[in-house]
Design brief:
Length: 830
């Protein structure tokens, strides 16, 4: 029998190849008893015996139906026994039966007898998980069934009655059970639909539509599908669709505990694949709903489903639902669809989704005879705001102001006094509810416009002056940012916009004014093209005038080619060998337009521990290598907590496609382009992103989270300043004389030195880490934000917030005798 089992293992490893040797020995003993016609004995493990019994039905790769009658009787007897099966047993038995059916075993009732008997011991939810695809109703689709799935149709056809009995809950389970029969309870959102919306979804007039939604298996709806949805739609189901999709837009992934054979584990779940199908049907149905709310809500759904678990990232919570929402927006068309699509373009980083959005915008733009960017310029909503960025509505006795600067709602009572919160008398007024919806849309649009304007800066987009005036400076939303930016005529004067009569002029730091001709080309000013003297003049001017820019423009860091990079020639090591918090670094890079980074403690042999972040800019592609570091056991052999940065290389668009092969025939990429040939602005912006990622996510920022890299923590936390930190120093040079603590603070090469009454402190301008004089003892202070720091004027919206952190620590330590936090005072007196 040993030889028989060994031969069986070699030819049918798909069934027993993974078994432990001890289990194989037990199976050999069962084989011997079976051949002798003897029972297994009183000490038998009936679960193990049942697994062996099912394997006795295997007929080999040739399949067929001529099973040994004794083996059939054996399986029937085990199926009738009361054995303490586990869900794990059921999964394994179902898998083995499926493998036999896949290989041509045709007596489905016999090979599934035991798996079905075991599955009946569990509740409906566990049954559905065990049966998986076998329990799903066959797709009502004209799509051709893949050849590898054809065998499953035979099983479903032959055992339809038994499968139905296993997965369909009886009527006494009520509306929730009826919904669960359609939307299996595989995730918290499906549970919400069954329990909270069950009575409405299971209503006789709605249930047919729910079942129709559950046929949404293709990538887009057919005309026939939409016609059926429109026929089944009622006014009540329209409001139901709106409610459910609103809940979906607010839904986030949840931790779900799973268990099997005494083991428990936790999974993070957004939506199960089976839940996605009917939800996609709801999204498709929006195509036949003619309501104002549809467009905005689909944009919200696309943003939620198109971003990662932290609201950003190159991976989607659900790419299928994102593309479904984008597809409906595209087919609805019109100017109203442009705004939500622009929001998706600004926030979502998944390349497949962005291609879909870009294609849609290009199609709409082409119809209007415009480019995609020109279309976006012309379709930014004004939300009824005046030139001052304010819209006023009278609600009851109160004046309500919608303000772009904030943005916020402000309330003026009958006495003319402005109050922060909505007065009780109007809180439930529908007009206020509408304004709150508008405020939400305004916030989203402002974020998208800030993103667009920064992209225009780094991509050196050019307009004519007439377009800048009409679509940017005069616009009540975009103008809030555009009027705080420096504009420039190429090879000509640059200036901040100043209104004069019926138009705009540009004013430079010396007060010189110019009004470009209407057709004159104009672009956003970038310090990479300017002298150091001009940059200093603009920085001083912004602080003197109190101009706060939506992003760093005048104070933007510039990264020029260094001698070290001239020596390495085709790659930059400027930001290599930094230890970063991987999840945070990936999220930040995704937000900055980088894609592709996915590394962890898996598949080491195939390079799962190594990867690259990729950014495409102005015909160039930058690649920044990363590799995993840290204990894989501490990370559960999953996504890494920490990574180490590597070199950055640049390629011209299309250059990588010309990769060659080494002597062994392995495909290898071409060497990167010489850095001296990379456009200075492209090089600078890529390295700026890298500097920002290091400056925000380095473990050198926090001694408590070094992950075993204490040496790196010290070298980074108190070492030489990067370009971002040097810019921070430049800002502080201008700010310090204006601050209350000016007589207690001074700047050194790498530190802000603050004199308290108890000690003197040195705050590193790169990491924010603190050393105490005279012995350079480390002081741990958790970053905080106080009112005094918040009141300090900064001439730009911060990336990462480190300048605010340093100022907060400086204000705190300058008044160290007032510190009451024991976690700090112990360190001061220790």
């Amino acid at each position: 029998m040993t030889a028989e089992l060994d031969a069986f293992t070699r030819s049918h490893g798909y069934l027993v190849g993974y078994l432990e040797e001890e289990t194989k020995e037990t199976y050999r003993r069962f084989d011997a008893l079976f051949e002798q016609g003897l029972p297994p004995g009183p000490e038998v493990d009936w679960r193990e015996y049942g697994h062996w019994a099912l394997l006795k039905l295997n007929l080999g790769v040739e399949g067929g139906h001529d099973h040994d009658e004794r083996a059939l009787e054996l399986v029937r007897s085990v199926a009738e026994r009361d054995i303490p099966w586990t869900a794990g047993d059921a999964h394994v038995l179902m898998y083995r039966a499926g493998q036999m059916a896949r290989r041509g075993h045709t007596r489905y009732e016999e090979i599934y007898r035991l798996p079905f008997a075991v599955t009946r011991r569990f509740g409906f939810q566990e049954r559905r998980e065990i049966l998986g695809w076998l329990g799903e109703r066959r797709r009502r689709s004209s799509a051709r069934t893949p050849e590898w799935e054809l065998w499953a149709e035979g099983v479903q056809e032959a055992l339809a009655g038994q499968i139905e009995e296993l997965v369909v809950e009886p009527a006494e389970h009520g509306p929730a059970g009826a919904v669960r029969n359609v939307i299996w309870e595989g995730d918290p959102f499906a549970r919400l639909l069954a329990e909270e919306y069950g009575p409405r979804l299971a209503a006789p007039e709605v249930l047919p539509l729910l079942r129709h939604w559950n046929t949404a298996h293709s990538t887009k709806p057919s005309g026939r599908w939409l016609k059926t949805a429109g026929t089944l739609l009622t006014p009540d189901t329209v409001s139901l669709v709106r409610e459910i999709l609103t809940r979906l837009a607010a839904h986030r992934e949840r931790k779900v505990t799973r268990g099997d054979d005494g083991h428990e584990w936790t999974e993070t779940v957004f939506l199960h694949e089976r839940t996605i199908v009917p939800v996609r049907g709801m999204i498709w149905t929006c195509e036949v709903i003619d309501e104002r709310w549809v467009t905005s809500l689909l944009g919200d759904v696309a943003l939620t489903c198109g971003t990662g678990s932290n609201g950003m990232g190159s991976t989607c919570r659900s790419e299928k639902l994102t593309n479904a929402a984008v597809g409906v927006l595209a087919r609805r068309g019109g100017p109203a669809a442009i705004v939500p699509l622009a929001r998706v373009q600004a926030k979502v980083r998944a390349r497949s989704v962005l291609k879909n959005v870009a294609r849609t915008l290009d199609e709409v733009a082409e119809q209007a005879g415009l480019t995609r960017e020109q279309l976006l310029d012309r379709t930014v909503p004004a939300f009824g705001l005046g030139q001052d960025g304010i819209r006023e509505e009278r609600i009851g006795d109160y004046l309500v102001r919608l303000c772009a600067d904030g943005p916020a709602l402000r309330f003026v009572n009958p006495a003319g006094r402005t109050v922060k919160s909505a007065p009780q008398a109007i809180r439930r007024d529908p007009a206020l509810a509408d304004l709150r919806i508008t405020l939400k849309e305004l916030k989203q649009t402002l974020a998208a416009e800030r993103f667009r304007l920064e992209q225009a800066l780094i991509r050196e987009r050019t307009w004519n002056w007439r377009q800048v005036e009409e679509f940017f400076l005069d616009h009540p939303v975009t103008g809030l940012y555009a009027r705080a930016l420096i504009w420039q005529v190429p090879q000509g004067q640059a200036g901040l916009p100043v209104r004069t009569g019926d138009g705009w002029e540009l004013t430079d730091p010396r007060g010189r004014r110019t009004r470009p001709e209407p057709d004159a080309p104009v672009l956003l000013w970038h310090p990479i093209r300017e002298t150091a003297e001009d940059v200093r003049a603009w920085r001083d001017h912004l602080l003197e005038r109190g101009v706060r820019q939506p992003y760093k423009q005048a104070f933007r860091e510039v990264y020029l080619l260094t001698p070290a990079e001239e020596r390495t020639r085709t790659f930059s090591n400027r930001f290599a060998e930094h230890v970063l918090r991987y999840g945070q670094a990936k999220a930040l890079l995704n937000q900055r337009g980088w894609t592709g980074l996915a590394i962890g403690h898996w598949d080491y042999e195939c390079g799962g521990d190594q990867g690259e972040a990729i950014k495409e800019l102005s015909g160039w592609r930058a690649r920044w290598g990363m590799h995993v570091t840290g204990d894989p056991r501490a990370d559960g052999w999953d996504t890494a907590s920490f990574c180490v940065s590597e070199q950055i290389t640049f390629y011209r668009e299309g250059q990588e496609k010309l990769s060659g092969h080494d002597r062994m025939g392995n495909r290898v990429a071409l060497e990167g382009a010489p850095l001296a040939e990379v456009p200075p602005l492209v090089l600078s912006e890529v390295l700026r992103d890298a500097d920002l990622a290091v400056g925000v996510t380095s473990v050198g920022l926090d001694q408590r989270a070094t992950g075993g890299h204490e040496g790196y923590w010290h070298s980074y936390g108190f070492g030489e300043l990067t370009e971002t930190a040097r810019t921070r120093r430049d800002v502080l040079t201008r700010l310090l004389p204006r601050l209350r603590i000016a007589d207690r603070a001074e700047l050194t090469d790498r530190f802000l030195r603050v004199r308290g009454d108890l000690r003197t402190y040195r705050i590193h301008l790169g990491s924010g880490n603190i050393l105490m004089e005279p012995n350079d003892a480390y002081l741990c202070v958790v970053p905080g934000h106080d009112r005094e720091t918040a009141s300090v004027f900064l001439p730009f919206e911060e990336d990462g917030g480190m300048l605010s952190v340093i100022l907060s620590k400086a204000f705190l330590l300058a008044d160290d005798t007032s510190i009451t936090d024991p976690s700090i005072t112990r360190q001061l007196t220790g």
